[in-house]
Amino acid sequence: MKTVIERHNKSKEEHHQVMNPTSEVKFWQREAAGLRQQLQNLQENHRQLMGEELSGLSVKDLQNLENQLEMSLRGVRVKKDQLLTDKIEDLSRKGNLIHQEYMELYKKVNLIHRENMDLHKKVYGNTSGANRTSLLPNAFSIEDDLNVPVHLQLSQPQQDDHASSEKATKLGLQLP
């Protein structure tokens, strides 16, 4: 369409004085006929690419059509592979960030566990190495032995007095 407009402007500039309304109408009729033919060719090409109206094609035409389809399919596959590769890289990056966040939280939980164990020893005294389990707020179960990894368990919150629950949360342990 852009080329048609450019041709029209160029033709109009060159023949501005000579062109009369009749010749201009003929020019636009030729342009419209050319555009109609282009549209028909594009529609026929589209139907052939969709596998329709192939009966009038020769073997060579069919081979050319097949090659064109294979090239198009190859382009689609390359684009799909690129999109999948980009998505995999993005998910991998997000997975690494989540893993780093997990490791930081794991370290924080272990630090809080040690602090809770120190507080527990201060409150109850040393239990001569007995391996007891303390129940902390939000139902986190933590072993007394500092060399054992921390195992977190989720459970439903208990219906408690709001003030004592808030105080226990701040202390990080639940006193009897």
Q: Structural class of the secondary elements?
A: mainly alpha
Largest beta-sheet details = 2 strands, antiparallel
Determine the mean pLDDT: 78
Number of helical segments with 4 or more residues? 4
Q: Please bin the fraction of helical residues.
A: 55-70%
Strand content: under 5%
Unreliable segments of 5+ consecutive residues: 129-144, 167-171
Give the termini separation: 85 Å
Based on DSSP secondary structure assignment, what is the total number of beta strands?
2
Shape: elongated
Order of helices and strands: HHHEEH
Strands side by side in the biggest sheet: 1-2
CA-based gyration radius: 39 Å
3D structure, described in words:
The chain has 176 residues and is mostly helical. 67% of the residues lie in helices and 3% in strands. It is built from four helices and two strands. Strands 1-2 form a two-stranded antiparallel sheet.
